[in-house]
Amino acid sequence: xxxxxxxxxxxxxxxxxxxxxxxxxxxxxxxxxxxxxxxxxxxxxxxxxxxxxxxxxxxxxxxxxxxxxxxxxxxxxxxxxxxxxxxxxxxxxxx
Length: 95
Fold this sequence. Notes:
The protein is mainly α.
């Protein structure tokens, strides 16, 4: 395992992860699953697949949140954050 501070300089993402624990996503996912007639585990899996592919989709989205964050970090001269965002965009890519 690498250094979390290298991947997430300043801990912004880790703080968001901790804050998200205050919300239970399952009721909304369960309603969606019930309405679609599919198992809630399948909806959860689909949501995770969509989220994990968001790095590449960010290049096609408007506005591109990851690219905006990258620009802001570069404008601020925050090279550590730039590297962290680039690492996040390339995570899992063997290219």
